[in-house]
Amino acid sequence: MIDLRSDTVTKPTQAMREAAFEAEVGDDVYGEDPTVHQLEEMAAKLLGKEAALFVTSGTQGNQVAVLTHCHPGDEVLLEANSHLFLYEGASMSAFAGVQPRTIHGNRGAMDSEEVRAAIRPEDIHFPETGLICMENTHNKAGGAVVPLGNMQAIYEVARERQIPVHLDGARLFNASVASGVSLEHYAAQADTVQFCLSKGLGAPMGSIISGSYEFINKARKWRKRLGGGLRQVGMVAAPGLVALSEMVDRLAEDHEHARRLAAGLGQIGGLSLEGQVETNIVLVNVAGLGKSADEFLVDLKGVDVLAVPFGPETVRFVTNYDVSAEDIEAVLNRVEQLVSNR
Ligand code: TLP
Known about the structure:
single chain; 342 residues; alpha/beta; Aspartate Aminotransferase, domain 2; Aspartate Aminotransferase, domain 1; 4-stranded antiparallel beta sheet; 14 helices; binds ligand TLP
């Protein structure tokens, strides 16, 4: 089976398994796990922030950020196809009691003037704008890299109005490797940043949120309230350290594989690419085959290839550490056969 459903499906490397086995641990709720400390320090340094917090998942990291930044009754501005809006079970409303307000972006990038216009003026009828969220890379836009200049413009608007900015950087390392812009530069365009260790970087679990000392102290309490205070968690922080030290540069391979996959799929009659491939995500429209995404995925599974639906006619393929260049060629051969046998 060649699994292109997500980069979350990667299995931990041998080095990660060994690091977990050997990790020095302590009770992290008491702040006594040295491996967690090491991971949090390394992450904060990479992002150029004061402090960082290890959380169980990207969703938990984003929600802890919303809970820490906002008050019930606030409004959160975010891109209409962002993960925070589409794929987190409305948890910002369920937990933080905030209302999302969406802005349609161009390949994931919101127009800074639209963001400015959406910020609420003081009026007894209106909610307060409590937070602005950005996402880079943008998942639903096909792994699009949101340009640094766009992020700068939005952060400037936010600072003028003293509204905090959170960056969902689940795949920020992909953005950085693809664009050559440092993590620090991206992170400087937001007050807080979440990134995932368990996507392209291959760790078995965990995300980081990062920001000021003050923010992280408050966030730690929200993480505890959500049941995310863990004990000898150095066992899973250790693979995270391996992810940060060994797995970043190789993301370029995933990007190369995605470009090859896209080039090949784009040649197959009935399939059309949706948007440009900038990182490790390829979106393909299958309407030309006279099939829905779900129907196409059943056929694909029949030839031992897995992907996910990303719309009624859209299929998402995500290249990852466990998929080789040969696997990509095999996928192309199998899809070509499928389509020609129709
Ligand atoms: N995305 C998953 C699915 O939920 C769609 C995937 O396979 O891509 N932010 C972004 C931009 C994400 O893509 C994801 C996961 C998250 C946050 C949440 O991370 P987890 O899965 O660790 O909660």
